[in-house]
């Protein structure tokens, strides 16, 4: 694999969350240090690659439901990560061409690739803001330049709250975001757990935290359900992402990522 030249502010000596995830998804926006840590984790638990793909498919199914069935036309995707196939705006605008999407991240590598997230249908709109989830006021202020907060908005927080280790802070962030939007708005999110693979998942977190650029915590399904307090949780509830309205017959094998979709009444 030929190496691309890193942009300004990108440290290729330390493994990086978005780049490791990109590697597991089969992307090219990663460096040897990311592949080394990614392979180390895969050696401990090969299922991690399936989790990465399953989590992306959960995002796609949730966004499709929100746009095609729930009538949502505005999305804030926080913790965007590196662009890949079927990004949020592509799924939403395929279902409803007038959808407007704001991507949010504070990663210089994501910022460098943001232009590829800014394609849009003529009827809709996409925007990218450089902001930190831990400062929700900045997220909301930036999104308000593109979205109408007098109409329902859907937040997607896919595998990002697990990088806010303090539970009280994480819950407070979600409450602030949901307090800012109208009834009929939605939250779609998941977090990592150790329900399926137990000690193997715990060990992966140890490796990740020792080698990566952001501390990661796992939460129980009950803790993940706490993010939906005050919301109407859609069927089938807080479940492994592979079990949330899967395509095709039967129930797929569970992965250590639990989440769901909730509606603000």
Can you give a write-up of this model?
The chain contains nine helices and eight strands. α1 packs across α2, α2 packs antiparallel against α8 and α3 packs parallel to α4. The termini are far apart. The protein has 265 residues and is of the alpha/beta class. The N terminus is likely disordered. Strands 1, 2, 3, 4, 5, 6, 7 and 8 form an eight-stranded mixed sheet that branches. α7 links the parallel β4 and β5. The longest helix is centred in the N-terminal third of the chain and has 23 residues.
Concise overview:
With 265 residues, this protein is α/β, with parallel strands linked by helices.
- How many helices? The count is 9
Radius of gyration: 17 Å
SS elements, strand count: 8
The shape, in one word, is globular
Alpha-beta classification: alpha/beta
Mean pLDDT: 87
Main beta sheet strand tally, sense and closure: 8 strands, mixed
The separation of the N and C termini measures 50 Å
Helix and strand sequence: HHHEHEHEHEHEHHEEE
Fraction of residues in helix:
25-40%
Query: Which regions contain 5 or more consecutive residues with pLDDT less than 50?
Result: 1-8
Q: How much of the sequence is in beta strands?
A: 15-25%
Topology summary:
Elements: H1 17-24, H2 32-44, H3 47-69, E1 74-78, H4 88-95, E2 100-105, H5 108-112, E3 125-130, H6 136-143, E4 154-158, H7 167-179, E5 186-192, H8 199-211, H9 221-225, E6 232-233, E7 239-240, E8 257-263
Parallel strand pairs: 1-2, 1-4, 2-3, 4-5
Antiparallel strand pairs: 5-8, 6-8, 7-8
Kindly list the characteristics that best describe this protein.
disordered N terminus, 36% helix, 8 strands, 8-stranded mixed beta sheet, alpha/beta, 265 residues
């Amino acid at each position: 694999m030929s190496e691309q030249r890193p942009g300004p502010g990108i440290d290729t000596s330390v493994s990086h969350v978005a780049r490791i995830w990109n590697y597991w998804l089969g992307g090219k926006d990663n460096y040897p240090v990311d592949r080394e840590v990614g392979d180390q984790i895969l050696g401990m638990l090969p299922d991690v690659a399936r989790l990465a793909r399953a989590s992306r498919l959960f995002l796609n199914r949730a966004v499709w439901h929100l746009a095609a069935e729930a009538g949502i036309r505005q999305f804030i995707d926080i913790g965007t990560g590196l662009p890949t196939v079927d990004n949020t705006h592509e799924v939403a605008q395929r279902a409803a061409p007038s959808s407007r999407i704001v991507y949010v991240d504070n990663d210089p590598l994501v910022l460098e690739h943001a232009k590829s997230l800014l394609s849009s249908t003529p009827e809709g709109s996409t925007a990218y803001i450089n902001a930190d989830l831990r400062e929700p006021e900045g997220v909301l202020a930036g999104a308000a330049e593109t979205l109408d907060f007098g109409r329902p908005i859907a937040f997607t927080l896919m595998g990002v709250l697990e990088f806010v280790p303090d539970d009280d802070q994480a819950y407070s962030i979600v409450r602030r975001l949901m307090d800012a939007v109208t009834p009929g708005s939605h939250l779609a999110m998941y977090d990592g757990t150790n329900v399926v693979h137990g000690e193997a998942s715990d060990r992966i977190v140890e490796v990740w935290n020792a080698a990566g650029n952001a501390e990661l915590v796992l939460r129980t399904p009950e803790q993940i359900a706490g993010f939906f307090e005050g919301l109407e949780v859609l069927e089938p509830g807080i479940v492994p992402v592979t079990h949330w309205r899967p395509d095709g017959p039967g129930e797929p094998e569970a992965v250590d990522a639990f989440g769901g979709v909730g509606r603000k009444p």
